[in-house]
Amino acid sequence: MSAWRTLLFALLCALLALSPSLADARAGATARSGGSGMSYSSQGSMGSRTYTPNGGQAIQRSTTPQSQAGSPYYGRPGFAQSHPFLTGLFGGFIGSWIGSLLFPHWGMGYGVFGSLFSWLLIILAISFLFRMFRRGMATEPPVYGGGPSLGGMGFGMRQSLGFGGGAAATQTRPLTVDATDQAAFEAILKAVQGAWSKGDLETLRHYVTPEMLSYFREELATNTSQGVENHVEDVDLIRGDVRDAWDEGALQYATCLLHWRAIDCTVRTDRKPGDPDWLVEGDPRHPNEAQELWTFARSPGGHWLLSAIQQV
After folding, report:
1. pTM listed for this prediction
2. CATH code of domain 43-73+144-311
3. Is 59 helix (H, G, I), strand (E, B) or coil?
4. Which has the closest alpha carbon to 150: 176, 178, 189?
5. Rg of the chain on CA atoms, in Å
6. Where are the domains of the chain?
7. Which residues contact 193 (CB under 8 A, 6 or more apart)?
């Protein structure tokens, strides 16, 4: 028994020591775009739904504070933050119970009362974990169904208007997206990729929000400092699905899953095509495919602008 207690105590210490590292391993992770060549993570703003799960990677960089986004899932305090006294008391009981198992001479492991109290703690712990598991299952992102193709440039409709549940800080209304809007989304995709390839911030300014422009400026500056350029050319939209569209009064939003193919390669600016080390990454001859969630925003009656990009 003494060997088992020693092993259990060592495992408990290892878990406590490693848990911060396991959590930090995911914090601030940057996901490279599948085919666009832009090394951004999911970023931008989607009004009150900036932090609402929508099937894409959670927004990691945004000028929209979580406290103003109205999301029922993100930014909500957990049990520990909401009930610090109960959390501390429960933690103390659990710690005392574990200690009694490891070192019975502490006193809690002896007697009928100690045994009953230990079983009570076990029941409470199982009940608490079961409630937390059910709560986690209830907040799973929604599963999207299929939708009919609208023809033309390959856009389909998979709208899930008003999903997310709960009362939001901002009132929203469903928004109808027509073929003219879909044509604008495709045009923005091609214009943004073309301007990105040329490092043309002035052109980007006409197709993206000021927030997204700042992110692109930062990425282009990083490429310049590293002496490389990323070219995304011959963009061809394979399919676009409108996942969500809503009106918040001052602004209107539409989130689309865009699937396209393009020539995507990164090259050195101080080399010429044909030099052995000119190509850094990608294929300048054969296109590859990419898929991302792009959210567009506009004032009522205005032009659409790219306001957010999410990895999927």
Report:
1. 0.62
2. 3.10.450.240
3. coil
4. 178
5. 26
6. 2-29+79-138, 43-73+144-311
7. 36, 232, 233, 235, 262
